[in-house]
């Protein structure tokens, strides 16, 4: 453990930020599952809504640094391909 106060603060801050990033990436995975279930069910309107929400979550995660921008672009392209299966 760190002896310097500023380093202790940095450790705590890094942990908080890690949890925030994990929460955002987990949300992206959840919305992917929702999109896939809507496509499998054959519900086009619901799939469009889920895709819109997923893209919003991915953009938000990329903006905050939870996802790399190239990773976010790849996830959005993958989501569009999943939606196109319907």
Query: In this structure, how is the largest beta sheet organized?
Result: none
What name goes with the CATH superfamily?
Answer: Ribosomal protein S20
Tell me how many strands there are: 0
Strand content: under 5%
Unreliable segments of 5+ consecutive residues: none
Q: What is the third-level CATH name, the topology? A: Methane Monooxygenase Hydroxylase, Chain G, domain 1
Essential attributes:
86 residues, Methane Monooxygenase Hydroxylase, Chain G, domain 1, 0% strand
Tell me what the structure shows.
With 86 residues, the protein is mainly α. The protein has one domain: Up-down Bundle (Methane Monooxygenase Hydroxylase, Chain G, domain 1). The protein has helices at residues 5-41, 44-64, 69-84. It starts with a helix and ends with a helix.
């Amino acid at each position: 453990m760190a002896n310097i106060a500023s380093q202790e603060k940095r450790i705590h801050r890094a942990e908080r930020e890690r949890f925030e990033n994990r929460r955002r990436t987990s949300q992206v995975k959840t919305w992917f599952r929702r999109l896939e279930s809507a496509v499998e069910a054959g519900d086009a309107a619901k799939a469009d809504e889920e895709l819109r929400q997923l893209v919003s979550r991915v953009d938000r995660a990329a903006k905050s640094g939870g996802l790399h921008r190239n990773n976010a672009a790849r996830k959005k392209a993958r989501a569009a391909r999943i939606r196109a299966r319907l």
